Amino acid sequence: MADEPQNSVLIVEDEPDMNKLLAEVLSAYGFEPIRAGTGEQALDLLAKRTPDAVILDLMLPGLSGYELCRRLKGARRTNPIPVLILTALDRPEDRLLGYESGADDYLTKPFSPDGLVTRLQACLDRRRQAAADTGAIEMTLEPAEAPSTMKAVNALVSALYARTGLVPESVEALRAGLIQVVEAAADWTGRHEGRPPLRATIHLNEHRLEMAWRPAAAGGDAFLAEHLGPRSETVSAWMGAGAFDRRSESGGAVVFEKALPTQSGGV
Questions:
Q1: Which of 31, 74, 194, 217 is the most buried (most CB within 10 A)?
Q2: Are 198 and 216 in contact (CB under 8 A)?
Q3: Which one-letter DSSP state was computed for residue 10?
Q4: CB 215 within 8 A of CB 207
């Protein structure tokens, strides 16, 4: 019986000893390591082949890890590749920036080989599960804590790239607007006894995206009007970039709708 093909993992790490160690760990666990020392080298390698996953340091010379992650997650071809950030930066704001750049997971140094491989395998498993699931997506966002909410936002963005022909400009405008709302809601939650101001229910199928936002706490109406009102910065950006076709209000909810193009019509 033939051996199963190895999963290839692109290591982007500028410290030679750490790069070598990661390659040795991955090889020992049955992965095929591909090594890059800078973000620019990583882009050159990605132009030639598509790895199954990326392990990414953030503090790189030249192109930063954040920017490399944004580029990978902002392109339809490379968006599905799981990106596991591995860094010495362990502040909450660093972690949040990592998820806002599109990362699938975030692990800090020092690390254990078993822990690294477990997290990497979990990323690969989630990617396979998402690729196999072709049914409608139902999702709830309750932005009380920004990093965990950003994981859900990233899952939605990946589904839009994988299942629809929505152009990258529209998808990335949607992501940017959601980041703004999530950050504002997380800040509001911290000042209101841990209760988030609003909640979103999202429905996505091959033809349509609907996102309905409702107040979830006292004061949520005012938050909704400020951040998702018809003349708000976020809504103007969404409509201008074609992320949504229509905004309406019904039963206390603010509803956004988009008729989706098929994948063959995408970029």
A1: 31
A2: yes
A3: E
A4: no
Q: Are 203 and 138 contacting, i.e. CB atoms less than 8 angstroms apart?
A: yes
E-state strands within 154-207: 198-204
Q: Which residues contact 223 (CB under 8 A, 6 or more apart)?
A: 184, 185, 188, 197, 198, 215
Which residues touch 40 (CB under 8 Å, ≥6 apart)? Answer: 62, 63
Domain range 137-265, CATH architecture: 2-Layer Sandwich (3.30)
119: how many CB neighbours lie within 10 A of its CB? 18
Q: What Rg do the C-alpha atoms of the chain give, in angstroms?
A: 19
pLDDT reading at 262 higher than 90 = no
Under 8 Å between Cβ of 202 and 210: yes
**Would you state the structure tokens that stand for residue 27, as one six-digit string?**
């090889």
| Helices H / strands E in the chain, number of each | 9, 10
pLDDT at 239: 98
Closest CA relative to residue 79, chosen from 172, 208, 15, 199: 172
Give the 3-state secondary structure of residue 31.
coil
Specify whether the CB–CB gap between 260 and 166 falls below 8 A. Answer: yes
Query: Two tokens at 226?
Result: 């400020």
For 190-223, the pLDDT digits (tens) are 898 888 999 999 999 989 999 999 999 999 999 9
Identity (one letter) of the amino acid at 4?
A: E
| DSSP structure class, residue 38 | S
Domain range summary for the chain, segments of one domain joined by +: 8-132, 137-265
For residues 101 and 203, give the distance between their C-alpha atoms in angstroms, rounded to a whole number: 23
Please, which residues bridge with residue 84 across strands?
Answer: 55, 105
Q: Pull the structure tokens for residue 196.
A: 């988030």
Which pLDDT tens digit goes with each residue over 118-144?
Answer: 999 999 999 999 888 878 999 999 887
Cα–Cα dist 163/78, whole Å: 14
